[in-house]
Amino acid sequence: MRENSDHRFDRRTILKAAGAAGATLGLGSVVSATPGREPGPKEDEVLVGTEDDVSIATVRSTVESTIPDDAAIVHENDVLEYVAVKLSDDSPSTMEPVIERLERQPGVAYAERNETWYAFSQPNDPRFGDQYAPQLVNAPDAWETTMGSMDVTIAVVDTGAQYDHEDLAARYRDDPGYDFADDDSDPYPPNPSNEQHGTHVSGCAAATIDNGTGTAGINNCTLINARVLSGNSGSLSDIADGIQWAADEGADIINLSLGGGGANETGRQAINYAYDSDTLPIAAAGNDGGPVSYPAAYENCMAVSAIDENENLASFSNRGPEINVASPGVDVLAPVPTDDYAEFSGTSMASPVAAGVAALGKAAHPDLSTQELWDKLEETAVDIGLPGDHQGSGRVDAATIVEGGSGGCSGETQTTTESGYLAWWNDREDYTYATTTASPCGIDLELEGPGDFANYDLYVTYDGRTPTPDDYDDRSAGSGPNEALSGSLSGATDVGVLVHAESGWGSYDLTITEQGQN
């Protein structure tokens, strides 16, 4: 166990409840506007604010004497003390000189463009309201930062896809892929009605967002397809060749919504080839409720289990210690041939949703290596209360993976250890940990308890509030004395920590390692 350091913990054995008084904001009569002023964006307007202790009438008079003859004040807010000036031309050559002149006038606090703002990332895809998968993984919040990048490529190794589908065509390069099943350069399924799987999988990951058509995938990346399945089956050799081809094509992520049989060297070598080529393989765990199938179970492949919209493990989802993350896989709505949409269920759907989230992470942090992207997908996953062999690190989360810097979370580190003692069942110790690195981006917590007769649990919050077994942001709650978890940080914060005795008693050591951004 590492040596205790500077005790940046605040031990709180007596809990405190913090209350906040509500505040209300009263709005008086707000505006007076020129009749007929149109709603919506107003790119041809300048907003002018008044300095303290200067009346808006005075500034209005100053503005009227300063602006060009073909400009006019069209709106006034007496409470916020600004006026809106409409110009005849919104070009920079016209706007900027007017703004500069206004800012020099006495009594004027500021002059600025009447910028256009937008509703936060509610896409205009007409069937978005029928979906739940993007919402469950918090994709709309991520889209405030990025909707993805065509510089990031997902290769879908599957039945091929209708790459000219109305909701997918924009995602493909001129050369959409290769058909290993028929050995030709066209991955379009020869019998689309019997080969819908690859189109649906591609749409789960990357149906075009905000194109006014159909559904929304998770990100607007580039798609390529390797057709390795005819109908719904294919040979190991075609699949291995497809994986190798995708890696050679420079795919950042390979989605493998397929599997069967046991471990084999050809499949293992293909997965290792992709991983060593800086391509991240992500695969479906399997749909028979048994152990994780291959290729998902290979060491260098991420395994994805399926959950429903209530974050319960799907009854069909395979499970086991190889599971890395969980993702929506029940009744997932996505494109199918020909220019249609359908709800499919399976870990086949969960895997491309996770791949789409990973692609958002890569778009936001393009310098991430394959292993760093793997780690980031796990570190930013949300614990949804399922056993580790059901959810791995948790449910993938798009909003969290796009946060932070682009250099990976492996820079400056700080380590602190605190020792304690729980005396009986249900005893607890509370701590507040204050981050100290220049740009905190991650945190690891390790709890070592007294022995196998005890069952200690670890609960964490990332806003400093005191966690409880019913109120926490992350937890590690196994059946023994030792627990560990990792979380992501997005700047300086307080982290609340609870060590709780589910049963047993004795001493423990709690070690926290904080990571800063490169």
Automatic annotation (TrEMBL):
Its EC number is 3.4.-.-. It is found in: Secreted. Coiled coil: none annotated. Residues 151-387 form the Peptidase S8/S53 domain. One of its GO terms (biological process) is proteolysis. Keywords: Hydrolase, Protease, Secreted, Serine protease. The active site is at D158 (charge relay system), H197 (charge relay system), S348 (charge relay system). CDD domains: Peptidases_S8_Thermitase_like. It is an enzyme of class 3 (hydrolase). Residues 173-200, 465-489 are annotated as: Disordered. Belongs to the peptidase S8 family. GO terms for molecular function: serine-type endopeptidase activity. It holds the Pfam family Peptidase_S8. This is S8 family peptidase. One of its GO terms (cellular component) is extracellular region. Its main location: secreted.
